[in-house]
Design a protein that fits this description.
Length: 331
């Protein structure tokens, strides 16, 4: 009982701090003169090259608009995304932006891993968040390279999905489910669009930090062919998934969860309370025994290190993405 009161006090203190901090953590202001982002709609596999070109042109125009307004940091980030060797299913430079990058031949892939990132992800941090491999782009590249190295004859693709409004770490949104519910709906739509592009691909969700809350909402709402394509759900560095157990997700697929020994998320209260008329927190730790997920071997990973090249966690996640979970070891 005393431990529960301590956890509650920590959570209330954290929420209060987040509300104060959120005043200084507002999203980036829209850039005047920014061209409208390309419309997001279902696309056939044969139309992907044209979509990629359209999104690159948009990013280049958005970079020019940011430069004209003196926002050199945003311009540099958008210039990098507009590189001719990069492919995006979805982009926006408005506010914190949106970016959904594809690695590999999505139209013909047998296995697709979709990476859902956590807090503090923006178009400005898409390529570097604390470290290269801690970002959506860097983590996706590391995962793609590992999957290809492990299974060179398997056609694989990785999607780095920054397709929702990720919260800032120092904001109230990071301890409530509003952004996750919105993100979950958007993730469901993305998975449905993916079925239209490649109906034969098997899909695994790789969910980091707050992204695991988004995945929890999406999986519970997922139905039809998009659900049947899902072959695995992997969560790492999770604050909770908004449910009491893996069974409540109703995924119908293996759920894997891991937390590195060096991850600060261990000190976050894994609980859920009603506070000021709002649900705060995300429930038990998915990596705990009682949650009922399979153990994901991640070693001594820190919060941003799970997709670090050469790490046990990266190899484990890649094997699950390839449908080879039985080969995952704890050594």
């Amino acid at each position: 009982m005393r431990a529960a009161r301590i956890r509650l006090a920590m959570l209330i203190t954290g929420v209060a701090g987040c509300i104060v901090a959120s005043v200084t953590a507002a999203a980036a202001n829209p850039v005047p003169g920014l061209p409208p982002a390309p419309r997001q709609a279902a696309v056939a596999a044969g139309k992907l090259p044209g979509l990629y070109r359209e999104n690159r042109r948009y990013l280049a125009r958005a970079a020019d608009a940011a430069r004209r307004m003196g926002d050199d940091g945003r311009a540099r980030a958008l210039d990098a995304l507009a590189s001719p060797d990069r492919d995006f299913l979805q982009v926006s430079a408005d506010g914190d932006g949106q970016a959904v990058e594809v690695l590999g031949d999505l139209a013909h892939a047998q296995r697709v891993a979709l990476l859902v990132p956590g807090s503090d992800t923006t178009v400005d941090t898409f390529d570097h968040l604390g470290s290269r491999h801690g970002s959506v782009a860097g983590g996706s590249r590391a995962l793609y390279a590992q999957m290809r190295a492990v299974a060179p004859r398997t056609r694989v693709a990785v999607i780095g999905w920054y397709g929702y409004r990720a919260p800032r770490t120092k904001s109230r949104d990071t301890v409530t489910q509003d952004r996750a519910q919105e993100g979950g709906r958007l993730l469901v739509r993305q998975l449905q669009r993916l079925r239209g592009i490649n109906p034969g691909a098997s899909v695994a969700l790789m969910c980091h930090s707050y992204g695991s809350v988004v995945c929890g909402d999406a999986v519970r709402a997922l139905g039809g062919s998009a659900r049947s394509a899902l072959t695995g759900l992997v969560v790492f560095g999770s604050p909770g998934m908004g449910v009491g157990s893996a069974a409540e997700l109703g995924a119908g697929v293996p759920v894997w969860a891991g937390r590195g020994t060096g991850d600060w998320i261990a000190h976050v209260p894994h609980a859920q309370y009603g506070l000021f008329g709002e649900r705060v927190g995300f429930g038990p730790d998915p990596a705990s025994v009682g949650f009922g997920a399979r153990r994901l071997p991640v070693g001594d990973s820190r919060h941003g290190d799970y997709l670090r090249p050469g790490s046990l966690s990266l190899r484990s996640i890649a094997l699950i993405g390839l449908g080879r979970g039985r080969e995952v070891t704890h050594g």
